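Below is one such record:
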Amino acid sequence: MESVVSWNVRMLLTAHDLSQSALAKAMGVQRSAMSKKLAGSTTWSLADLVRAAEFLGTTPQSLMDDSLMSQMGIDMKKAAGEPAAKKLPQLGLNQRHFD
């Protein structure tokens, strides 16, 4: 579940053009503590989920929902700590999306 929450939080931060630092400040934790949560090194408490959801304009339940990850074929065990860009296919310099 930690990897699902971390992945969903990272995706919402990106979607809303928000920083980890802004989330950390809103949650009342140090940026280093937030980095550890997003990397899966420390756990998300229920209070963390509630605060993060409020900041991101969603619900704690949606942060725990793995349906988007499943639809995208993302391995939840590997998702924690891995930047979203690594999960998407990378195109070469001269490669078009339909090649």
About this structure: Confidence is low (pLDDT under 50) at residues 83-90. The two ends are 36 Å apart (CA to CA). Residues 4 and 66 are 6 Å apart (CA to CA).
